[in-house]
Structures are given as structure tokens and as C-alpha cells.
Automatic annotation (TrEMBL):
Transferase among keywords: yes
The keyword Transferase appears for this protein: yes
SMART domains found in the cross-reference section: TPR (SM00028)
One MF term in the entry's GO annotations: protein-tyrosine sulfotransferase activity
TPR repeats, residue ranges: 61-94, 95-128, 163-196
Organism: Mesorhizobium helmanticense
One Pfam assignment: Sulfotransfer_3
Tree of life domain: Bacteria
PANTHER family (UniProt xref): PROTEIN-TYROSINE SULFOTRANSFERASE, PROTEIN-TYROSINE SULFOTRANSFERASE 2
Taxonomic placement: Bacteria, Pseudomonadati, Pseudomonadota, Alphaproteobacteria, Hyphomicrobiales
Protein name per its UniProtKB record: Sulfotransferase
Family annotation (InterPro entries): P-loop_NTPase, TPR-like_helical_dom_sf, TPR_rpt, TPST-like
Keywords: TPR repeat, Transferase
Length: 543
């Protein structure tokens, strides 16, 4: 089954016959040809080479492994895992195959299997830099920064010039609030390869740029290279926008952010999304919850911080996590995964609604207990554990049935400021609504509509954290937050910027700073460039 389409989409060059294997060429020669082509981003020809070998030798482990790496290029991770599992089964002692499979499991968030294979790879070859870095990446993803740092340092001890290790360490140090060290790592990487996209992007995010920053010229030069892929251009335009924004060149900055969105593109269906929320509002009314009074696990440990991204969710979590008896677990995918057991991930919203209506008290308790088991793996001691997945706002009905005593903290921010900040960040493809200003504004309106509904009907304790009021009267808001969580006050919450922990969100730099109000009404700096957003938000924009 081909990984890449036979019809040529935009940006994918047509196959060139001269690049393909000749009759009589040996399997190793054909595989090496494919590797060379893949490095040159000639993915269709590379796939042809690997498939040519597999047609003759279906159990060629190297060809299966290489098909797996190509599947990752095509963003078909499950397919990659299937190929790589076959390669590992054929050659279980191959450290490279183990590393590649572990990395694929990293990409789908299967941390247990990722670490199993990556640790085995290191056991087989303790100097395999790729495996050391991928294991560091795995621990970084779970906010275990100290452990991750150890693996990156081991990788750099093997090869101090490894770009993967330098960039990985730089990203980790940025997460940990050690900006000066992060900048040094990115600088070392750029000294080795001034066109390295990951290092240039990481450097832009790690510190505030000043006038005349040489990184901007390097980013612009990389954009001009014909070898630069569309995916790389997205990162580079975001990096250029961030640098220009730091330099107060707001009109130029917003141009680069818009270019990034135009290149990345997205077919986010706002009409389908609206129908999903329509189904929630129609199905989950006050009577729905009144008919289900004794559902779920009664634990009071879970705290959910919800809202739009860039609405103050990371700041709010950092305040909580500064308390001696509250653990900040970061953005956990668990609630969405559990809701998936009821069909939440299906295109037809009726499937989830029907499953919720049919949910029994026993099943609801089981799902709540599963969630708590995940929390206990993160932290088994703290009185409260904070899950800061913003888009859990969609699933407050589900949370209310499986964890009825959970506390919800709803972060709100001025719609124009909130959406402008979203637009300036390179979120994952899951945030398809961020593809252009109009869809972003439309999405915000749907979010606002759903949250207003939940506030009326969901029997959960919900506490609002308006961003503007938080920065205007921080202590009052912080004390109110901790009180809502049922905890005694801890003065460390006022010194949230001193709390040492790994933070993996676009706000990781900001939460290392004392409270500031310069982000309030920041959208006005961008002038008429934001007119489409303003129009899409309509009545939600303050006059």
C-alpha cells in the first residue's frame, strides 16, 4: 500500500525515472539509493526503492524499517509502527530499529512502549545518540525535566556536535526556565549549521530579541533556500514573526504569522464543529444531569484548568503548582482518550451523545477511577493534581459524570487579545481553527457559546479566572483560586515565577516572569491586519 499519493499534490515533485533502481541492482544498492533519495526529500522515489526490495524480499528488515521512517515523513505514524514492529521482530538485537520504533511510539504518546524500546536500544548500544535523545524527549514530554536532562547530557558526552542533542537540550532548558543555558545550546547548534531550522526556531522562542538581532537574517536566509520545505517554512515564519514582535515591528510580525498559517493551511470545518456543540447543548441540559445524581468516582483530587489556549491557563497552573500540596501535571490527553471510549472521536456527534445517555453508574465510576490511576502515576501524594488541557472545556459534561467532585477553573481573556495571541503561535494540527483569523474568531464564538451553556447546567464547581483581573489584582485572584481548591493559603503562590518545574507550553517563558499587564489590549498594536478577526468575533468585541 503506497504511503504517498500517486497524484502529485502541491509541493511534492513528480517522480524522476533516472532516480529509480535499474534492473539487476542488488537489494543493498537499492536500499542505499532510497536512503539517499529520502535525505534529499525525494520521498516518492525513496518509497519506490524500498517497495521494490520488499516485493522481492518481504522479510527484509532494513527495508521494513526504512518504510517505517518514510511513513513518519508522511505523518502516518500507526503505519510506521507496523513496519517498524516487523523489522524489530526480524532483528530484535538491532539498536537502530529499536530506536526508530521507540521514537514512533513517542509520537503517538505511548510512553510505556516508547521507553521500553528506547531503553533496549541503549542497552544494545550505549553510544547511540539518537536513542539517548529520544529517551530524553520521552521524559521531557511527561515533565520529568531532571531525568530528561541526564539523557541529553549523555548524548552530548558521546557527541558534543550532535545537532539533535543540542537542540533537544535547548528546548528542554527553555521548558525548565533556564533561558541563558538554552540560548547557549541553540547558539552552539547554529555555529555548526546556521541553516538548522529547529535551532533557529528554538532560539527565537528562548529569549527576547533586540534590534539588530542577527538571528533574523539567518531565518530570512533559510526561507530563501529552495530546499526549504513547507513545514520548515511554517516554523521559520513563526520564528521571524516572534523576533519582529520582540523588536516592536508589529505589522511585519503579523505578516509572517499570516504567511505561516497560509502555508500550513487547514480544512477545519467550522460548520461541522458548530453542529457538534449544537448536539451538546441540545442533549446535555439541566434535566440530563438531574437524572444522574450519583455517578462517577467521588475523589476531590482532580482540578481541570480549561479555556482557550493563551487565555492564562499556564499562569493559573503555575500559581497552583507553587503550592506545597498541589501538583501541576501539565496538559494531559487522558480525558479525551477516556471520552473516546464513548465515541467522542467519531465524526457523528450523535454517537457520543447516545453513549453518554446510556452510561451506567458502574461504567462512570470505572472511567473516573481510570483517570485517577493516571493521576497517581504522575503524583500519588498531593492533595490536588492539576490537569491543564485547555480544550477539556468541551468535555465538562463527561467530567461531571465520571468525576463529580472535580473542580473546574475557567480561564477567560479578552477575545481579541486571546485570539491574536493564538494566531501568533505554531500550535499542532489539532488546532485547525487557528489556520486563519476568520475561522479563529468563529471558533472562539463557539467556545464562548458552549461555556455559557455549561455554566448554566453542569453540576460542577466552576471558578472563573479573568486574565485582565488577575494581572490587575494578582494577590486577590491568587488567594481566591487557592481557596476555591479547598486549600490553605501558601505564600509561595505569589512567587510563582520562582517555582522550578518543567513547563511545556508557548507560555513557558512568560511564567518565569513576575506578573505583568503589557499583554492587555495588545491586539491594538496590529492595526487593520486584525480586521477579519474583529469581524468574525462580532458582538464579543468590546466597543
Amino acid at each position: 500500500m503506497p504511503l504517498l499519493p500517486r497524484r502529485r499534490p502541491a509541493g511534492l515533485p513528480a517522480m524522476v525515472q533516472d532516480f529509480l533502481p535499474a534492473a539487476g541492482e542488488s537489494a543493498p544498492e537499492t536500499l542505499q539509493r532510497g536512503i539517499d533519495l529520502q535525505r534529499r526529500k525525494r520521498f516518492r522515489e525513496a518509497e519506490f526503492c524500498y517497495q521494490t526490495v520488499l516485493r522481492r524480499q518481504p522479510k527484509n528488515a532494513m527495508a521494513l524499517n526504512l518504510m517505517g521512517t518514510l511513513a513518519i515523513e508522511a505523518q502516518q505514524i500507526e503505519t510506521a509502527i507496523d513496519f517498524m514492529k516487523s523489522a524489530v521482530k526480524l532483528e530484535p538485537g538491532n539498536a537502530i530499529f529499536r530506536n526508530n520504533l521507540g521514537n514512533a511510539y513517542n509520537l503517538v504518546g505511548n510512553i510505556e512502549l516508547a521507553r521500553k524500546h528506547l531503553k533496549k536500544a541503549i542497552e544494545l548500544d550505549g553510544r547511540l545518540v539518537e536513542a539517548l535523545c529520544n529517551l530524553g524527549k520521552s521524559y521531557r514530554s511527561q515533565l520529568e525535566g531532571d531525568v530528561a536532562e541526564g539523557f541529553y547530557r549523555r548524548a552530548l558526552a558521546v557527541d558534543s556536535q550532535s545537532l539533535k542533542a543540542l537542540v533537544g537540550m535547548g528546548d528542554l532548558l527553555t521548558d525548565m526556565g533556564r533561558q541563558a543555558e538554552a540560548v547557549e545550546c541553540f547558539g552552539r547548534a547554529i555555529a555548526i549549521d546556521k541553516a538548522n531550522v529547529e535551532a533557529l526556531s528554538g532560539l527565537a522562542l528562548a529569549r527576547r530579541a533586540v534590534k539588530g538581532d542577527p538571528a533574523l537574517a539567518l531565518v530570512q536566509a533559510r526561507l530563501e533556500l529552495p530546499m526549504t520545505t513547507d513545514r520548515e517554512r511554517v516554523y521559520l515564519h513563526h520564528a521571524a514573526g516572534k523576533i519582529l514582535n520582540d523588536q516592536h515591528e508589529y505589522r511585519l510580525a503579523i505578516h509572517h504569522f499570516a504567511r505561516a498559517k497560509a502555508i500550513s493551511g487547514n480544512d477545519f470545518d467550522i460548520a461541522l464543529h458548530t453542529r457538534l456543540y449544537d448536539s451538546f447543548i441540545e442533549t446535555f441540559d439541566a434535566a440530563f444531569f438531574e437524572a444522574r445524581p450519583k455517578f462517577g468516582n467521588p475523589s476531590e483530587r482532580p482540578v481541570f484548568i480549561v479555556g482557550m489556549p493563551r487565555s492564562g491557563t499556564t499562569l493559573t497552573e503555575q500559581i497552583c503548582a507553587s503550592h506545597h500540596d498541589i501538583h501541576g501535571a501539565g496538559e494531559l490527553p487522558i480525558i479525551r482518550s477516556l471520552a473516546g471510549e464513548l465515541g467522542f472521536d467519531q465524526l457523528d456527534p450523535a454517537i457520543f451523545a447516545k453513549a453518554m445517555a446510556a452510561l451506567t453508574p458502574t461504567k462512570a465510576r470505572e472511567l473516573g477511577s481510570k483517570y485517577l490511576d493516571h493521576l497517581n502515576k504522575r503524583n500519588g501524594k498531593a492533595a490536588r493534581v492539576v490537569d491543564k488541557m485547555p480544550h477539556n472545556f468541551e468535555l465538562l459534561a463527561f467530567i461531571s459524570l465520571i468525576l463529580p467532585n472535580a473542580r473546574i477553573v475557567h480561564c477567560r481573556r479578552d477575545p481579541m487579545d486571546n485570539c491574536t495571541s493564538c494566531f501568533m503561535h505554531n500550535f499542532s494540527d489539532a488546532h485547525g481553527y487557528n489556520a486563519d483569523l476568520t475561522k479563529l474568531g468563529q471558533y472562539y464564538r463557539q467556545y464562548d457559546r458552549l461555556m455559557r451553556h455549561w455554566a448554566k447546567v453542569v453540576p460542577l464547581a466552576i471558578h472563573d479566572m479573568p486574565y485582565e483581573e488577575t494581572v490587575a489584582d494578582f494577590e486577590t485572584r491568587a488567594r481566591g483560586l487557592i481557596g476555591f481548591l479547598g486549600m490553605e493559603w501558601d505564600d509561595a503562590c505569589l512567587r510563582f515565577h520562582e517555582t522550578e518545574r518543567t513547563v511545556r507550553t508557548p507560555s513557558r517563558w512568560q511564567v518565569r516572569q513576575p506578573i505583568y499587564s503589557s499583554s492587555v489590549e495588545r491586539w491594538k498594536l496590529y492595526g487593520d491586519a486584525l480586521d477579519p478577526l474583529r469581524a468574525a468575533l462580532g458582538p464579543l468585541v468590546q466597543p
